[in-house]
Amino acid sequence: MRLRYNYRVYPTPGQQQELARAFGCARVVFNDGLRARQTARENGEKYLSDGDLSKQVITLAKATPERAWLAEVSSVVLQQALADLNTAYRNFFASVTGKRRGRKVAPPRFRSRKDNRQTIRFTRNARFAVLGNGRLRLPKVGDLPVRWSRQLPSDPSSVTIIRDAAGRYFASFVVSTIQDETLPEVESEVGIDLGLTHFAVLSDGTKVAAPKFLRRAARKLKRLQQDLSRKTKGSNRRKKAAVRVAKAHARVADTRRDWQHKLSTRIIRDNQAVYVEDLCVAGLGRTRLAKSVHDAGWASFTGMLEYKAARYGRTFAKIDRWFPSTRMCSHCGRINDKMTLNVRAWDCPCGAAHDRDANAAINVLAAGRADNSNDRGARVRPPAMAAPRGEAVINPDAACPTRSVEGISVLQGGENVNARTPPQRRSAGSTR
Prior knowledge:
Elements: E1 2-9, H1 13-42, H2 50-62, H3 75-97, E2 118-123, E3 129-130, E4 136-138, E5 142-144, E6 146-147, E7 156-163, E8 169-176, E9 189-194, E10 198-202, E11 207-209, H4 213-216, H5 218-229, H6 236-270, E12 273-277, H7 281-284, H8 290-296, H9 298-311, E13 315-319, E14 345-347, E15 353-355, H10 356-371
Parallel strand pairs: 9-12, 12-13
Antiparallel strand pairs: 1-6, 1-8, 2-7, 3-4, 4-5, 7-8, 9-10, 10-11, 14-15
């Protein structure tokens, strides 16, 4: 299994300048490659292959006075920038032809120095190393101090250096492990109904209150945004105010992510199978409840449940989004008419009284058990899941980005690192 571990790094001012130079060179190579392919298409020429493009925008460009400074950074960084471009094109073509599931992928866009997130990637070819004193040695950058919150299970195959909008630096290591982390089997299974009043209602009756991290920080964010709007555009004070706003938003996102990690880990450890409803978050994000929907972070939470279930040997499945879990009686199976959101409890003609969310969670559990059983009633466990986004490589010797997630995840190939797409649904696997 391939995992990704994130750590905070603290480069010195000189190392920050070297990293900024590497970010800029990678951005220029990416844009030059994109411009070259767009020009070839406009002129009616054939599509530039990966090898020809690398020779044109890296090898030959270094010999010109306009791009001679590309030699000041590691060549692996430049090659990985082109690998990102090639992956973006492959994803776009697969989306246009219908080979890629999910929402349509737009063609690659030019990168800007004003982008909130800057990244560079080093593979084993770059010969980066974790030193005995705990520092990370990067070619033509130096030894970076790393805040090690946990030990790496094995030697990393690649590392991605990330600078976010708040000016923080992170090192994302990709490692391979053969350690069996399957948890002892338990008898309990759970269905989860996600909502806004209660973030999650479990089929056993447990209700998890919605923390509403963004709502709680709204007053502080409003004050910082007002302070930013008063600053003159282009001034240093405006840049500092923008960083303060970014740090406040980063704190909200980090707090939400930490809370979701703890909740998802507890659910996976306590239950052998977890079933959730496949919500259309993109559609709900266009309604009047958009702010609350995005504040809840359902998609990231279900993604955590999915990859942790695969990692620890649990069963995870999503129920069809059109399944009437709320309107169906969990006792007799009768489906009632549509109910408005203000109806939190209802009575069935069979005599059963239902709490809206608890009844939905029970129906999700029943539907999940039915979908994951064979003709003899035995439960079928889906195969190991591939993780959501990517900043790593397919194998230790390759130079191509793959999928990954926040924190720790499983990796697979074939996705643009700049695009965030939902994880694919898994099919049923072998009988346990």
